[in-house]
Design brief:
The protein is of the alpha/beta class and 199 residues long. The chain has a single domain (3-197), classed as 3-Layer(aba) Sandwich (Rossmann fold). Helix content is 27%, strand content 22%. It binds NADP nicotinamide-adenine-dinucleotide phosphate. The site of NADP nicotinamide-adenine-dinucleotide phosphate has 24 residues, from helix 1 and helix 4.
């Protein structure tokens, strides 16, 4: 299984740190030449591999960590996303709901990434919190996952566990998913709730 993170800003770097902590290889990409952020990637760890966007999208599991408005540009890089899982980390805060046809923002993104399996996740925490070691107070930091594809949610749940988090599945995008989505200028009830699970 191969992994990539598209977007290497606050959230992309926080996710990269989680991969580095566990020694799991992940490629990272932006619109820029990989040499321009190679030093930042190396500073996080040797398993963080800077790549061109066209190469990074070859991964099986792709974290979408760009601003919501940039997702169509990423979606254009492949004619089909069949066989891939997109983890939608974006928050469409401030995007008028009517621009999304009233749909959950992740379903709008799913249309752009045609044929991909999509899981909304890792988006409910601020970057400064997601950046930290998820082993907290003897428990594991919670990440929420929502998807209309149960198998994809299970796959990302396993990855979240391997990264040291405690995943909680909320169900479909139009059900539990709404708890972790921004809608217009409001936030779902679970956004920014920094929770830990104890075994
Ligand atoms: N910041 C938070 O606390 C937070 C928390 C939860 C969720 N989120 C969500 O996470 C996403 C990223 O937020 P952020 O704060 O990390 O934003 P950011 O710091 O502005 O980073 C965005 C990254 O995306 C890259 N990018 C822009 N357009 C791209 C494209 N077409 N293809 C590939 N890469 C592209 C940018 O690099 P170049 O411009 O150099 O290409 C940059 O590395 C947003 O959707 C945000 O709503 C943020």
């Amino acid at each position: 299984m191969s992994y990539s993170i598209i977007g290497f800003g606050n959230i992309g770097k926080a996710l990269a740190k989680a991969f580095a902590r566990k020694g799991i290889q992940v490629s990272v990409a932006t619109t820029r030449d990989p040499e321009s952020f190679a030093a930042d990637a190396a500073a996080i760890g040797p398993t963080i591999i800077p790549k061109k966007l066209a190469d990074a999208v070859k991964a099986d599991i792709i974290f979408l960590a760009v601003r919501f408005e940039s997702h169509p540009d990423v979606a254009k890089t492949l004619p089909t996303w069949q066989g891939k899982t997109i983890v939608d980390v974006t928050n469409a805060y401030g995007v008028p709901p009517e621009e999304l046809g009233g749909q959950p923002s992740s379903r709008f993104i799913a249309h752009a990434f045609s044929s991909a399996r999509l899981v909304k996740g890792f988006n409910h925490l601020g970057a400064a919190t997601l950046d930290q070691d998820p082993a907290v107070h003897g428990g594991r930091r919670v990440v929420f996952l929502a998807s209309d594809d149960d198998a994809a949610a299970a796959e990302i749940g396993t990855l979240a566990e391997n990264l040291g988090f405690s995943p909680i599945k909320l169900g479909g995008l139009s059900e539990g998913g709404l708890l972790v989505q921004a809608r217009g200028n409001s936030w779902g009830q679970l956004i920014f709730k920094d929770l830990a699970k104890f075994d």
